[in-house]
DNA sequence: AATGATATATACCGACAAGTAGAGTTATTT
DNA sequence: AAATAACTCTACTTGTCGGTATATATCATT
């Protein structure tokens, strides 16, 4: 209680024991890339040890077990990597939200600076029974994206940006469905321009409806 | 060469040794369902032994190794399960092809009589290095679906069913993208009516373009 | 310099993976 | 009935998995 005030020292530099031989956030970044590219089941802890340049006990000491490490990687992914989503959600009008999201998705999913596709889609799409916990967590994340769109479109409806009898649930689901499909395409080798063409096709047909 | 004429006996019933204690096609059917639901990596041969009611050496004797078994399951899936695809491709007009495919997909992907989603999508979407052969094969299968649509739309163009400046590649890619996204949705628990709503949304916007 | 705290390194654990050996069983053929 | 072909069964091998015990190295503190 009162005795942890000492921890509020703003610069607790001196750490007492032997210092860490690796940069924690850098290691997590690398782990994210491996999980992103190979999925949860496709990645072994030994793989990570090799690729991260850190030995196993240190890995477990810093990040817990494999599932916790994956969770932390997912959190990093959502907060720092797939930022185009929140940028799209903050767009002015509903149609701008849609366009920004889909175009942003085409670019993000094929960005050569990181693995292709969405980690939330391909991280654990199907799995054995021992992996179903991660499977479920990713389903929740996907549902959350959909719910964000649904809410955004609901408020858009009240502002008159959207036809009042728009089915916002289906519209949100359509968008995330397209996104998830684009993710599969990206992991299958689709290029950025191919995905942009697909998006343009979807958007063309869309602009006729409002 | 000439000495295998005897094998052309239309009813080679008498098989010499001890008869099989299981129905081969029935076992393959069950194996398909397991792979379909759990993916390649998520399914272990021991799982299959338990669920198929057949012991391991018999399984290996009849179907080769795990990869060959998976390949045979995929073949069964494509020829006997996802038949709605070829039905859609054989539809009269291009717009009927699109509608039949998407509506058929919504029903197929959520059909309660078999695992949800597409085996070709979730069978090995991402994987470690030792599974990449299967990964690649499924990519080829997905590309083949796309190519079938592209060809169908090309002939539709010559028949005047489709606007002559239609980008048939992108149209085909759009359709398969939507399909793959719907597959992800189905494995995430989306219901048939939800997917049908998504499809209707896509079709509405589509019908404006021709 | 000695102590205590923390991190690293090697080597290991039990569980389970894919795949197989070899003995036993059940049929047809001669 | 004897021989042989084909299948089944138990038990095993080898390798890898996630995870850890133990010993050692490196720092701040005293």
Helix and strand arrangement:
The structure is a homodimer of 210-residue chains.
Chain A: H1 24-38, H2 45-52, H3 56-63, H4 66-81, H5 84-89, H6 94-109, H7 119-122, H8 132-158, H9 168-187, H10 192-207
The first copy, chain A, binds a DNA duplex (30 and 30 nucleotides) through residues 14-21, 44-46, 54-58, 60-61, 65-66.
List keywords for this structure.
homodimer, 210 residues, mainly alpha, 0% strand, disordered N terminus, DNA-binding
Indicate the percent of residues in helices of chain A. Answer: 55-70%
Q: What is the number of E strands of chain A?
A: 0
Straight-line distance between termini of chain A: 58 Å
Report the mean per-residue pLDDT of chain A as an integer.
90
What about the largest sheet of chain A? none
Query: Percent of residues of chain A in beta strands?
Result: under 5%
Largest interface: A-B, 52 and 52 residues
Oligomer: homodimer
**Low-pLDDT residue spans of chain A:** 1-12
Overall description:
Two copies of one chain form a homodimer. With 210 residues, chain A is mainly alpha-helical. Chain A is built from ten helices and no strands. The first copy, chain A, has helices spanning 24-38, 45-52, 56-63, 66-81, 84-89, 94-109, 119-122, 132-158, 168-187, 192-207. Chain A is elongated, with a radius of gyration of 21 Å. Chain A starts with 23 loop residues before the first helix and ends with a helix. The model of chain A is unreliable at 1-12 (pLDDT under 50). At the A-B interface, helix 8, helix 9 and helix 10 of A face helix 8, helix 9 and helix 10 of B. The first copy, chain A, binds a DNA duplex (30 and 30 nucleotides) through residues 14-21, 44-46, 54-58, 60-61, 65-66.
């Amino acid at each position: 209680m009162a005795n942890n005030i000492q921890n509020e020292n703003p610069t607790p530099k001196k750490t007492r024991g032997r210092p860490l031989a690796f940069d924690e956030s850098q290691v997590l970044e690398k782990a994210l890339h491996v999980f992103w590219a190979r999925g949860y089941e496709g990645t072994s802890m030994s793989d990570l040890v090799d690729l991260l340049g850190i030995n196993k006990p240190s890995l477990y000491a810093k990040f817990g077990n494999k599932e916790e490490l994956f969770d932390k990687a997912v959190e990093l992914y959502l907060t720092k990597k797939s930022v185009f989503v929140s940028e799209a959600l903050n767009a002015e009008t509903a149609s701008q939200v849609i366009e920004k999201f889909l175009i942003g998705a085409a670019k993000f999913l094929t960005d050569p600076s990181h693995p292709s596709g969405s980690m939330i889609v391909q991280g654990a799409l199907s799995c054995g029974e021992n992996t179903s916990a991660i499977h479920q967590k990713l389903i929740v994340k996907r549902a959350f994206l959909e719910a964000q769109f649904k809410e955004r479109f609901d408020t858009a409806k009240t502002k008159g940006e959207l036809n009042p009898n728009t089915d916002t649930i289906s519209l949100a689901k359509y968008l995330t469905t397209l996104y998830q499909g684009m993710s599969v395409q990206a992991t299958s080798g689709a290029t950025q321009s191919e995905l942009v063409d697909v998006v343009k096709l979807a958007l063309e047909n869309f602009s006729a409806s409002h």
